[in-house]
Amino acid sequence: MPEPLFVIVMGVSGSGKTTLAISLAEALGWDFLEGDDLHPAANVGRMAHGIPLTDADRRPWLEAIGRWIDVHSAAGASAVVSCSALRRSYRDVLRAGRPGVRFCHVAVDPDLLAERLSRRRGHYMPASLLASQLATLEPLEPDEPGVVVDGDGTPDAVLHAALVALGLEEAGHSADDRPLG
Q1: Is residue 101 scored above 90 in pLDDT?
Q2: CA-to-CA distance for 159 and 150, rounded, in angstroms?
Q3: Mean pLDDT of 56-71
Q4: 17, 47, 158, 165: which could form a disulfide with 147 (CB 3.0–4.6 Å)?
């Protein structure tokens, strides 16, 4: 049986990673996880009060996402996960022992990010943390499995770009007959 695939859609708040991740999961017929749903309540509270998370705060969250991936992998089910995964060390936790993990970084111009966040309502992540996220962001390195897509377009255009970049543009085929970044 081929190894299941896991696309982790990453980027800063406001990049459109959740929108893209949901669209990818729907297009591919894969399961979806909103990584933020696995944040401990303490992390959500810190962010809601404009306090950036530390690496120690993030570790249990990243490990919880990894366990979710492991459960799906054991069941042979591919999935899409939205997760900021801003630093290489965070991505290393997510892919440790998980050869099917690939990253899709949604890159967006900082001015557009600020505009998007100024319009966002009902999300615990305040726009005031954007600068901290941008400062934390470490781009994918050449030895990391993944791709970068421009998140400035329409949701359909970004989805198409991600499918093409990941080698998954023929939705409906089984995951084992498509290359992935």
Answers
A1: yes
A2: 10
A3: 94
A4: 165
In a domain? residue 175: no
Confidence of residue 179 (pLDDT cuts 50, 70, 90): very low
Q: Which of 43-47, 105-109, 151-155 has the lowest mean pLDDT?
A: 43-47
146, β-bridge pairs: 103
63: amino acid identity, one letter = E
- Is the residue at 106 inside a domain? yes
Give residue 43's domain range: 6-170
| H helix or E strand, kind and range, residue 7 | strand 6-10
User: Is residue 79 over pLDDT 90?
Assistant: yes
Of 149, 127, 129, 126, nearest in space to 139 by CA: 149
The CATH code of the domain that includes 159 is 3.40.50.300
Q: What is the pTM of this model?
A: 0.84
Q: How many whole angstroms separate alpha carbon 131 and alpha carbon 164?
A: 30
Within 13 A of 43's CA, how many CA atoms are on the CB side?
Answer: 16
In a domain, 178, yes or no: no
Determine the angle formed by the axes of helices 55-74 and 41-48, rounding to 10 degrees: 130
Q: Which two tokens stand for residue 89?
A: 């060390």
The pLDDT of residue 135: 84
Q: How many domains does the chain contain in total? A: 1
In a domain, 34, yes or no: yes
Three-class secondary structure assignment of 131-151: HHHHHHCCCCCCCCCEEEEEC
